[in-house]
Design goal:
With about 400 residues, this protein is α/β, with parallel strands linked by helices. About 40% of the residues lie in helices and about 15% in strands. The protein folds into 2 domains: about 140 residues, Alpha-Beta Complex (Aspartate Aminotransferase, domain 1), CATH 3.90.1150; about 230 residues, Type I PLP-dependent aspartate aminotransferase-like (Major domain) (Aspartate Aminotransferase, domain 2, 3-Layer(aba) Sandwich). It binds pyridoxal-5'-phosphate.
Length: about 400
């Protein structure tokens, strides 16, 4: 089946976070309570990581059939669910997962919180590599742990891991965990096997548990190859927890279904105990149905959507090179999130936000929320019809052009 990703679909009024709220200072407010956005150009939301595309047809068919069944009692992630995960990881990533390693949770972010709670004592520290997905910080702070920052290195438009910094932090006795974003949100790096191996060796040597958040691991551009952390070898897998989900891959985030894969039985038991202590057991029935259909029958859609998103990236890169030369585009190797270095616009954080949100009326994720290293950057979600992307770019150009002194 050929999918049409050019189609603009109205997502207002269907409980979409992306299309319902806007940021005001540090708060999200419903759009209807933000009068300045009621008039004039409609806001283009390109912030949170979901796609403005309809998901694979087999998923819609499976959900429709399940809805017609009409009984929605408690769900159970049984054999066919686990097999779908096992088959996907084997077929797509060459990772042999045993069904019993899988712990289903209602999202990766809740799992990250529970992982910190399970494995990090009060006062111990967790390494993150900023600029990085901001809920990592919250997962650490929410659960009594402290932050250990190992900023990524940024040179010649490319990010890399500061291995010397990592080694120094990991060797400190109070450092218990590293939360790894792989591929890395927001900078779009798909870590190579060699990079992961080096990182893993440091963590193993210093007894630092690796939590690999691989939620973007299916969204990889040609010429890059995703390495699941656990495929580095059994020694690495036994000292790691891997967070996966079909939610980014197939645009199913609202169904709140993810899988935490833990090969080490002791670590798994500890995590399951924490999970049970919250009462958060059980999985959303529609999420399970969607996962099975997506993993078993969604590959054709995924190939087409990645092709379309790659086309969107080319459009963005060419537009920016031609019309917004003050912005440097960091080419993503994976994910549909693009990291823009806007520092040459010469605007401070507030002025940059005013330009994007209030003048262009394009709602991006401000770089600073990913850590101080992100100040002056913006993250744009390009998983939208090309017409919307082009409109957003044109608006940003108009806003930049109308600012005296910005050149
Ligand atoms: C790195 C990363 N982890 C986790 C999530 C969200 O996970 P979930 O919706 O399963 O809680 C996102 C969403 O953008 C993400 O980028």
């Amino acid at each position: 089946m050929i999918y049409n990703f050019d189609r603009e679909i109205d997502r207002r009024g269907v409980h979409s976070a992306k299309w319902s709220v806007v940021k005001q200072g540090d708060r999200f407010v419903p759009l209807e309570d933000a009068p300045q956005f009621q008039e004039g150009k409609r806001l283009l939301p390109m912030w949170v990581a979901d796609m403005d595309f309809v998901c694979p047809q087999p998923v819609i068919d499976a959900l429709t059939a399940r809805a017609q069944h009409g009984i929605f009692g408690y769900g159970w992630p049984g054999a066919s669910y686990r097999q779908a995960v096992v088959d996907w990881m084997a077929r797509r990533h060459g990772w042999a997962v045993a069904p019993e390693w899988i712990v289903a949770t209602p999202g990766v972010v809740p799992a990250l919180n529970l992982l910190v709670r399970s494995f990090v004592s009060a006062g111990q520290r967790v390494i993150v590599q900023p600029p990085v997905y901001y809920p990592f910080y919250a997962a650490i702070a929410n659960n009594g742990a402290d932050l250990a920052r190992n900023p990524l290195l940024y040179a010649d438009g490319r990010y890399s891991i500061d291995f010397a910094g990592l080694e120094a932090l990991a060797s400190e006795p109070d450092v218990a965990m590293l939360i790894l974003s792989s591929p890395h949100n927001p900078v779009g790096r798909v870590w190579t096997r060699e990079e992961l191996q080096r990182l893993g060796e440091i963590c193993l040597a210093h007894d630092v548990l690796v939590v690999a958040d691989e939620i973007h691991g299916d969204l990889i551009y040609p010429d890059h190859r995703f390495t699941p952390y656990a495929t580095l070898g059994d020694e690495f897998a036994q000292a790691a927890v891997v967070c996966t989900a079909p939610s980014k891959t197939f645009n199913l985030a609202g169904l709140a279904t993810s899988n935490i894969i833990i090969p080490n039985p002791e670590l798994r038991l500890r995590f399951e105990r924490t999970l049970n202590s919250t009462g958060l057991h059980g999985v959303n029935t529609f999420g399970m149905v969607a996962l099975e259909a997506a993993y078993n029958e969604g590959e054709e859609w995924l190939a087409q959507v990645m092709d379309y998103i790659a086309g969107n990236f080319r459009t963005l890169r060419e537009f920016v090179a031609q019309h917004l030369p003050q912005i440097d585009v960091i080419a993503p190797e994976g994910t549909y999130l693009v990291w823009l270095d806007c520092r040459r616009l010469g605007l401070d954080k507030d002025a940059l936000e005013r330009l994007m949100l209030h003048e262009a009326r394009v709602f991006l994720d401000e770089g600073a929320i990913f850590g101080v290293e992100g100040e002056g950057f913006e993250r744009v979600n390009i998983a939208c019809p090309r017409s919307i992307l082009v409109e957003a770019l044109q608006r940003i150009k108009a806003a930049v052009d109308s600012r005296p002194g910005v050149s």
